[in-house]
Specification:
The protein is of the alpha/beta class and about 425 residues long. The protein is built from 18 helices and 8 strands. An 8-stranded mixed beta sheet has the order 3-2-1-4-5-6-7-8, with helices on both faces. A hairpin with an 8-residue loop joins strand 6 and strand 7 (about 175-180). Helix 8 (about 215-230) crosses helix 11 and helix 9 (about 235-245) packs across helix 14. The radius of gyration is 22 Å and the shape is globular. The two termini are about 10 Å apart.
């Protein structure tokens, strides 16, 4: 069996494992769901819930926002109708069953509220208090935040045992992963119910512990930090994308940050600089800040590192001239651009090392969850089986040696995780087979 075959077989078994509720079936399954925020994420969450739950509410603060949210939900179903995966009758039936609200007056029978508003902790704290005042005591509150610690958000809750994170990935109707984040105060019953909701939404679910960036966002932070460092050293965005795809990523590094949203990346970068310092965010943060200030927010705004025209179907995307000027302004003077091979290995190994640190810190429960989270959350080179399958195949000692070389050449952010060094010394494997 080839390494790739073994990786994909283990990936299959890992996915199967993550499609079961580790807590068992809940005694009381949430029936009535409410989603706060009718943006891209909120509308996506509503869309994957409508077929599975008798009552789904989509709430926002204006008729305009609600109307846009309804259109996005409808677009999800229209695509399925076009592919003959759904009848027009079912599309119309589901859309007619969507409850839209501008206030909380009809939240009295809600079992689960999923918050998908802006990444502003003060805004989220205010919403938590308002929602808990309008919902029954058993109602679970889940935040779709991508980085803010759930424990910090839960400080505004009078029911912290019913508080957790449900981190979906965009676009919600296509991305299979759901990352559920629990705190020390989250009850087993709340976690149990949240996992079951995710499984009912046809998601592959991992449960992780609370911490800055949780698991997936933290690893993406290391990956994109190194990608931006390579750009500042002279790697063109198009070359970065080619390097990623050639290495096995489904999408290039520059395209990935456009998909995620440069404004989201900026907020996460600022936060990570506060808690991790320069270890994760390797490039100059002013690059992302200036991109945001100039309206380069990514694909959703029509321009990020690349320009996005809805009329363009396939082909090579045009580099955004505004973004190009900003990137060139922050290029390291006199720096020779890294080789394609170095771009590939630096970005990939930073992501693998961050995943290993998350296992070391018990953010993730086991290597299987680590592999599934990376592959189904960000497409982490599936043919390599995920970070921990890769460490076993490549060899922990080989990984440590290569990281030490980069550490000597580039800096401390390449210091290998202690757990990988321990496995290298003992000869242990991360995966069972």
């Amino acid at each position: 069996m080839t390494d790739e075959s073994r990786a994909l077989v283990n990936l299959f078994f890992g996915k199967t494992q993550c499609e079961k509720n580790p807590y068992g079936k809940p005694e009381k399954m949430p029936q009535n769901l409410a989603v706060l925020g009718a943006g891209l994420m909120g509308a996506g969450i509503a869309a994957v819930s409508l077929e599975k739950f008798p009552k789904v509410i989509l709430k926002d603060v204006s008729e305009t926002a609600i109307s846009k949210g309804e259109d996005m939900v409808r677009d999800v179903f229209k695509k399925r109708v076009k592919r003959k995966k759904m009848s027009q009758f079912d599309c119309d039936r589901l859309m007619s069953s969507l409850h839209t609200e501008l206030d909380l007056s009809n939240f009295g029978d809600t079992d689960l509220v999923i918050e998908a508003v802006f990444e502003d902790i003060n805004l989220k704290h205010r919403i938590i208090k308002e929602v808990e005042a309008a919902t029954p005591d058993h109602c679970i509150f889940a935040s779709n935040t991508s980085a803010l610690p759930i424990g910090e958000l839960a400080k505004a809750s009078k029911r912290p045992e019913n508080f957790l994170g449900m981190h979906y990935f965009s676009p919600v109707d296509k991305m299979p992963l759901l990352e559920i984040i629990t705190t020390d105060q989250t009850s087993k019953e709340a976690a149990q119910a949240a996992v079951e909701v995710g499984l009912k939404q046809k998601k592959t679910v991992i449960v992780v512990k609370d911490g800055p960036g949780f698991y997936t966002t933290r690893v993406i932070g290391a990956l994109m930090g190194e990608a931006f460092a390579c750009i500042q050293e002279g790697t063109a965005p198009q070359e970065l994308d080619k390097a990623f795809v050639k290495f096995g990523w489904p999408v290039g590094g520059a395209s990935l940050v456009d998909e995620v949203g440069i404004d989201v990346a900026y907020k996460v970068t600022k936060y990570f600089l506060e808690v991790f310092g320069d270890r994760i965010s390797a490039g100059d943060p002013r690059v992302i800040e200036e991109l945001v200030e100039n309206g380069c927010l990514g694909k959703k705004s029509g321009k990020g590192i690349y320009l996005y025209d809805k009329r363009q179907k396939g082909g090579t995307r045009q580099l955004n001239p505004t973004a190009e000027k900003i990137l060139n302004r922050y290029r390291t003077p006199g720096q020779v651009a890294p080789s394609i091979e170095d771009v590939q290995w630096r970005t990939y190994m930073r992501s693998v090392n961050e995943a290993a640190l998350c296992l070391q810190e018990e953010i993730i429960a086991n290597p299987v969850d680590g592999n599934i989270g990376m592959i189904f959350g960000i497409g982490h080179c599936p043919q390599r089986g995920g970070p921990f399958q890769f460490l076993d195949t490549y060899g922990a000692q080989n990984f440590v040696d290569k990281m030490r070389q980069y550490e000597e050449d580039i800096g401390f952010r390449f210091e290998p995780a202690q757990i990988v060094m321990d496995y290298a010394n003992s000869g242990k494997k991360f995966m069972k087979s």
